[in-house]
Amino acid sequence: MLKQIEGSHGVSEAVALCRPEVICAYPITPQTHIVEDLGALVKSGKLENCEYINVESEFAALSVGIGSSAAGARTYTATASQGMLFMAEAVYNASGLGLPIVMTVGNRSIGAPINIWNDQSDSMSMRDAGWIQLFVEDNQQAVDIHIQAFKIAEALSLPVMVCMDGFILTHAIEGIDVPDQKQVDKFLPSFTPRQILDPENPISIGAMVGPEAFTEVRYLAHQKQKEALKLIPKINEEFKQIFGRDSGGLISTFNVEDADTVIVTLGSVIGTIQEALDEQDENIGALTIRSFRPFPLEAIRSALKNVKRVVVFEKCFAVGIGGIVANNVRMALSGTNIEVYEVIGGLGGRPITRKSLHKLFKDAVKDNLETVTFLDLKKDVVERELKREKELLQSGSVAENVLRDVGVVNAAKTT
Amino acid sequence: MSHQQVKFYQTGTLTVGNRLLDAAQRTVQATIDRSNSLDSGHRACQGCGEALGARYAIDTAMRETNNKVIAANATGCLEVFTTPYPETSWTLPWIHSLFGNAPAIGTGIAAAMKVKGREDVRVIAQGGDGGTTDIGFGCLSGMFERNDDVLYICYDNQGYMNTGVQRSSATPGGARTATTMPVGPEPGAEFDKGKNVPLIAMAHEIPYVATASIDRLHDLEAKVKKAMSVRGARYLQIFVPCPLGWGSAPAQTVNLARLAVESGIWPLFEGEYGEITSVTNIRKQVPVEEYLKPQRRFAHVVKNPKQLSAVQAIADRNIRKFSLLEEQE
Amino acid sequence: MFQVRIHGRGGQGVVSAAEILSVAAFIEGKHSQAVPSFGSERMGAPVVSFCRIDDKPIRLREPIMEPDALIVQDPTLFNAIDVFAGLSKNGYLLINSQRSIKELGIANAIKLPEDKVRLVPATEIALQHIKRPLPNAVLLGALAALTGVIQIDSVAEAIASKFPGKIGDVNIQAAKAAYELLSHNNQEELTC
After folding, report:
1. H or E element, residue B59
2. ipTM of predicted complex
3. Cα(A369)–Cα(B208) distance, integer angstroms
4. Does domain A2-243 have CATH number 3.40.50.970?
5. Nearest to B108 among A57, A63, A204 (CB)
6. Domain A251-374 - what CATH class?
7. Mean pLDDT (chain C, rounded)
8. A223: closest CA of chain B, how far (Å)
9. A with C: how many residue pairs have Cβ under 8 Å apart?
10. Distance from CA of C100 to the nearest CA of A (A)
């Protein structure tokens, strides 16, 4: 049914349709509306046969999820930003134990400095943990991919995180076609765990593995993600059959067939990028990565093979080296002569505008870009801070100095 | 007390015999059909108090539930010596997740059992003092305040033994550990620090809290039995000497546990919903020195009158606080 | 695409306004997107929300830089932030105030034809119907009259769906009162 609702609300409805048995989450901006909605659905009885647990931290949230999933219950949680890091140990544990937990990540930056707005640092911080990481472009996909996520997770016995841009998607109200229970039941069968804690058939889960076997166990985890490269498009096809929408798969492309330049990105920014591309007439296309882990090396390589240059636009970066997504894309394009530019933008919620994108496109087609560009960087502010640091040993907190400089904090410096 | 109190007056050996009791009063371990949930073949040290305590506790829980228990174990000695890859000595469903989350894992398992209509299956979460009083403390408190239907058992050997004997917040004043070495007149572990988790559990007003010791196994089993007879959050802390970490002889493990109780160092009590419901009296108070002497971790204390009296003061305070010397009817 | 930017202070229902407007458009079978912009969420702090309405799916997600209609729920904001930034030359301006443009001291900041600018005593109308100084629904009624981008009946239905019961009813009354007021004014001008 088509509804005009907040992204978070769509997600909670989608999760409820998947008949979760245990929901356990700790609130953190911008995911709060999702967990509040689910709590209300359970309390009202609209979501039956579901235990909803309020816990004391994100570490507890995912740990409770590990316990319930290992005991055979379909399990869901959600987090963002700092919460992701607080549960980091459990994130690795869940994938290491092969538990098909589904988790929403309301993408938000990570401090210090503390910042509540959108970027993708949180998901990126766990990119090596062995979870499947799917990124959605809009709220329709957010709804659809959560439904696909449970199926993917349970087919592989691997946890899946569904990443959606915080505020931009979680708090945006737009038209979403929310599937009905019949369709979802047709698509998603009840959970049959690969392993289960059961007094009838006792097993020990989580034993130590020594040097003689650890490598093989880890290699098999790698193989499983590679298996996911085939499974994710397959499940997307099955989804399309029942629901009529292509919401998932590994990548999606926009005018790449004859393009010389392709912008590669993830998440909601693709909407603004497509608008901007339609407003100009250079031969530029775009590619959205929907599955970030497993990383679709082949699909990306194949889509970009005739291209001259690629601009990877990402809302995260690896401090001290450059783009994270960009370097994964470089792997996909290794051996080719395709130039890869790294553009880092949208950090901490900085808006990405068509105006800035147009300038970026113009520079890109002329190869007038540095290897790494921080979009809309206030160079003068940066210069002034660097100068301050050179001149004063006790130059003060960088964050506070910059805030003063851009006028957010008005008080005059007392020293 | 719900079981027959047996007072042993023995000369010679320190055994606690079952043959003086009628069959119904014997320990679960005395029966041939015990579940052996912690089966033989594990790699615990000779004289490990934790292995003894765990075996008694879990088998009792299994008997009380018709063999329907799922256990969640924190990282630590118990987890390591029971699951030496590729073997396991657990014959019940068992999961080890992380060091600090055993209580939360228990919560999750209990939730799954509830939603699946299998509340006949009971949950035990367990760990050492490190995983309980320190790194798992947040999760433990959370499990308590939600009154989740989990029995948490802490096997307290007063230090991080698995990683080489480091100080935990359960390490008593004066004890030598790798991170609290006594130097000159300075004690090992400092006095006036540490956490009393059984009392903290009491402050959460959960349905059942008890302390136990492996020197009196009938009492331990009775407490586990009592715990399994109620629902909601329950906490049991069992005193388990560690010969390796304490520098004591393996054959002294049970005796040291007894001396800890009889000196007042380790008060035995039960509580329900925040109020103490029973206390085990000390027949004859033993001076702490007798308890400390067989442990090399207290060698420094025994030689230092100031530290020795500090330890004695702790024991005396416990006796006063819990009324351990007063006669019970 | 028609882009509306709404300015106000925390507690004045700025975010709800954008949502209700988007639902009104949805009711008419259009595509719409409402997004709050997140500054500090304290009561009294400046808040901005955005609503886009279009006949085709909306892909754009940047903040609304060039609004086709600007709603100012709190005139004290003129001194605090550049409310008019990017306002299209053919745009509409709706201000919650009993005073005139000149009296508000913003005559020089606005370069719009007179028929595109309306000052509505929204707080007073709200107090009259809702008994609370919440001008958001009122201003949406006024927006319907001023721009015709959505119908007043759609606004009413949208309000009812978000605020069922008596609260919805009184807000609808207030919105309709503003709609009538502006329609009446429009009529008068036409006959002048």
Report:
1. helix B49-64
2. 0.94
3. 68
4. yes
5. A63
6. alpha beta
7. 92
8. 22
9. 61
10. 31
